[in-house]
Write a structure and sequence with these properties.
This protein is 17% helix and 17% strand. By secondary structure, it is an alpha/beta fold. A hairpin with a 5-residue loop joins strand 5 and strand 6. The structure holds zinc ion. The site of zinc ion has 5 residues, from strand 2 and helix 5.
Length: 324
């Protein structure tokens, strides 16, 4: 069932902008929760301060960051305050995955909360399109991108992580440029959009949507989609997953079912605990893994170079020496 779903759900599309090099959008089917990497982060409503903002709050610094968005179709009820704490927990889980493995983190856009704690800065966007337009169309990711622009969320120094409160055949989508250049000019250093959906596929056997979490896909999904936007997986990677019909695009790995960027299809080895580039040979340099005494780099663009990933010294600082 799992393999059939992955294939059936791997629809893709191309975003129309920027014209000279359009990112490709990767749609991801449901994973299953029998891998550690798919564990759902615990959360409780009182971890969020109850603030609902419709604009990007003043930034705490001017560094590149991932900005969170909750988007609701024109004709559906706004469930933001019901699930805001869960979005925040899922964002922290994604960042903590890099911290645990590599001493790095994702720089999420945060704000000072009403309770004087730091909170994920989440902008609530009421979409112009109704739910029926989103359902099951291959244009879902493109529509989200356009709605962000309409809402004025188009900062070139931000990636956008969107929880779309609409059903989908996919668990998520992420925009990726197949650009291997190890330089600040790499197109994956531009803005980009990652989307997490409610998993319509539950009704046909999928199980990644969390019934206690509004139906949103969780576990590895957010980090997976963001990592597409950071520039993975590139065709140069030795464990690059070749495109599976009818999907014309791969952009995943095929060496570990516990790897955030691999599709856990049958036959893929469960390599142990959660991994983010198992073996450090596809999209994260060995030199950026403190557990390895290595200065080796892979020779193509890797996610550890991303300006949206915090350096070892912390998220308050830019990465002065990414290791190009
Ligand atoms: Zn993917």
């Amino acid at each position: 069932v799992r393999a059939a779903l992955v294939i059936a759900l791997a629809a893709v599309l191309a975003s129309p902008t920027p014209p000279q090099a359009a990112p490709r959008v990767h749609a991801d089917g449901p994973g299953l929760v029998d891998y550690d990497v798919d564990a759902r982060a615990p959360w409780s409503p009182d971890e969020y301060d109850g603030v609902e903002l419709t604009t990007d709050a003043p930034d705490l610094n001017d560094l590149p960051a991932v900005h969170a968005v909750y988007m609701v179709p024109a004709d559906l009820p706004d469930r933001f305050l019901e699930f805001a704490a869960m979005f925040q927990s899922d964002a922290r889980q994604a960042s903590d995955r890099l911290r645990t493995l590599y001493g790095r983190a994702i720089r999420f856009d945060e704000r000072s909360g009403e309770d004087s704690k730091r909170h994920l800065d989440i902008t609530v966007v009421r979409a112009a399109l109704p739910n029926s337009v989103w359902l099951g169309t291959p244009f879902q990711a493109e529509a989200v991108h356009n709605e962000l622009r309409r809402a004025g969320l188009d900062d070139p120094d931000k990636k956008y992580a969107v929880w779309l409160d609409a059903v989908s055949w996919a668990c998520g989508t992420g925009e990726l440029y197949q650009d291997a250049r190890r330089s600040p000019d790499n197109l994956n250093e531009r803005s980009g959009v990652a989307v997490v959906y409610r998993n319509y596929a539950r009704s046909i056997g999928g199980s990644s949507g969390d019934p206690d979490g509004g139906g949103f896909c969780r576990g590895r999904v957010l980090l997976h989609e963001l990592t597409h936007t950071f520039g993975a997986v590139l065709e140069q990677a030795p464990h690059y997953l070749r495109p599976l019909p009818p999907s014309p695009f791969g952009a995943h790995c095929n060496d570990s079912a516990e790897d955030v960027m691999c599709y856990p299809h049958p036959g893929l080895p469960d390599t142990g605990g959660p991994a983010f580039d198992y073996g450090n040979d596809d999209y994260w340099d060995p030199a950026a893994n403190p557990a390895l005494d290595s200065s080796a780099t892979l020779g193509w663009w890797t996610v550890n170079l991303s300006r949206f990933v915090c350096p070892v010294s912390g998220c308050e600082h830019p990465n002065p020496d990414p290791g190009y």
